[in-house]
């Protein structure tokens, strides 16, 4: 578990599911989501130490050891709805939770109904670092952050949302029925938190029908502080991409995808680029090596492993199916000069990112 782990959700899920979770419940769900590998075929049982979770949140209250199992029990009772065309899905977040007293560990499993919105996503998804939401104090801030994050790269640079629709989406309609209260305690409080904590911030304008405020126009901006996470999908080192930078990023992604005979997703292509530090030639070189291997169940995983351990020539003749059939060569520091702007800190972030979901 690490604050640099990535959370991946489909944009449809973010923009169409209204659910009511406490701040602590959201942080547990998002921490769990950060442990999921989006290219996995199915959810696993994800295990984490409560002490690690408390450390991520900066909480020292030992009572959390008994409180968290109570929170997960309540989570399993909270059913929400997903409307997909003429299909209505009613599901809870978790299908199971297991806590062994004395171990300080808890094991959680997502509901299988959430698979289409968190696994094997190839387009129309949003990805961000867990650290963006961990320090938030308002229960509405993580939801508004996700909504704005998945609209960050709109060409017009803003998104318009009806006030009533936003209130219902984040389940604030009954808590703050009056617009002035909603503006003060939800919108403006979230605005302050995002600017201080996350990788994006926003300004907003009120849209009026007559004298009544009926909509909000959010102008989304990237926070450019070097301390903020900056390597999520569709982001550049400087924050929000220009059209030219975004095109360059897409060209790299497409180049990687074209190397493979197999169909791979955009997210898998990005992981390959992260592992190779942007060096297309290394990806191509390792993929060519894979063609001499008899059977590979996960081609992307194989190539990533080959890049990390720097497989070169085969030791023997004939096709084989193991990683150890290739000799490793000494690390070449000159490869660092082939980066696309990554520095040492980001290299560590990428390494941690790929390891997310393991314990």
Notes on the protein architecture:
With 359 residues, the chain is of the alpha+beta class. The chain has three domains: 1-121, Winged helix-like DNA-binding domain superfamily/Winged helix DNA-binding domain (Arc Repressor Mutant, subunit A, Orthogonal Bundle); 136-223, Winged helix-like DNA-binding domain superfamily/Winged helix DNA-binding domain (Arc Repressor Mutant, subunit A, Orthogonal Bundle), CATH 1.10.10.10; 243-354, no CATH class. The protein has 13 helices and twelve strands. The chain has helices spanning 11-16, 23-33, 50-57, 64-75, 115-118, 141-149, 163-169, 179-197, 243-259, 266-275, 280-290, 299-309, 344-354; strands at residues 6-10, 46-49, 79-84, 87-92, 94-100, 105-110, 125-129, 158-162, 200-209, 212-222, 311-314, 326-328. The strands form five sheets. A three-stranded antiparallel β-sheet has the order 2-6-5. Strands 8-10-9 form a three-stranded antiparallel β-sheet. A two-stranded antiparallel ribbon has the order 1-7. A hairpin with a 2-residue loop joins β9 and β10. α10 (266-275) packs parallel to α12. The longest helix is centred in the middle third of the chain and has 19 residues, at 179-197. The chain starts with 5 loop residues before the first strand and ends in a 5-residue tail after the last helix. The model is unreliable at 226-245 and 315-359 (pLDDT under 50).
């Amino acid at each position: 578990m690490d604050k640099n782990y990535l959370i991946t959700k489909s944009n449809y899920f973010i923009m169409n599911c209204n659910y009511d979770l406490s701040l602590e419940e959201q942080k547990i769900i998002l921490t769990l989501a950060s442990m999921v590998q989006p290219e996995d075929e199915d959810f696993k049982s994800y295990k984490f130490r409560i002490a690690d979770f408390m450390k991520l949140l900066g909480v020292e209250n030992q009572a959390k050891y008994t409180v968290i199992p109570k929170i997960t029990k309540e989570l399993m009772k909270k059913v929400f709805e997903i409307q997909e065309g003429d299909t209505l899905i009613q599901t809870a977040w978790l299908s199971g939770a297991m806590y062994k007293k004395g171990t300080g560990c808890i094991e959680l499993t997502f509901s299988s109904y959430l698979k289409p919105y968190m696994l094997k996503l190839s387009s129309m998804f949003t990805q961000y670092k867990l650290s963006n939401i961990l320090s938030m104090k308002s229960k509405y801030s993580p939801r508004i952050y996700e909504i704005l994050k998945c609209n960050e790269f709109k060409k017009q640079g803003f998104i318009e949302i009806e006030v009533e629709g936003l209130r219902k989406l984040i389940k604030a309609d009954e808590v703050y029925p009056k617009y002035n209260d909603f503006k003060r305690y939800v919108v403006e409080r979230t605005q302050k938190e995002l600017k201080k904590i996350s990788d994006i911030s926003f300004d907003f304008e009120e849209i009026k029908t007559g004298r009544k405020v009926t909509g909000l126009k959010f102008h989304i901006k990237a926070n450019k502080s070097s301390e903020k996470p900056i390597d999520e999908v569709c982001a550049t080192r400087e924050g929000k991409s220009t059209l030219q930078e975004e095109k360059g990023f897409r060209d790299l992604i497409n180049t990687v995808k074209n190397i493979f005979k197999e169909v791979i997703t955009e997210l898998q292509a990005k992981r390959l680029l992260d592992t190779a530090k942007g060096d297309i030639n290394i990806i191509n070189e390792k993929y060519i090596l894979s063609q001499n291997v008899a059977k590979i169940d996960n081609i992307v995983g194989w190539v990533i492993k080959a890049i990390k351990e720097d497989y070169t020539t085969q030791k023997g003749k004939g096709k084989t199916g193991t990683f150890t059939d290739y000799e490793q060569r000494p690390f070449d520091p000159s490869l660092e000069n082939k980066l696309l702007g990554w520095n040492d800190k980001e290299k560590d972030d990428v390494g941690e990112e790929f390891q997310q979901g393991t314990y």
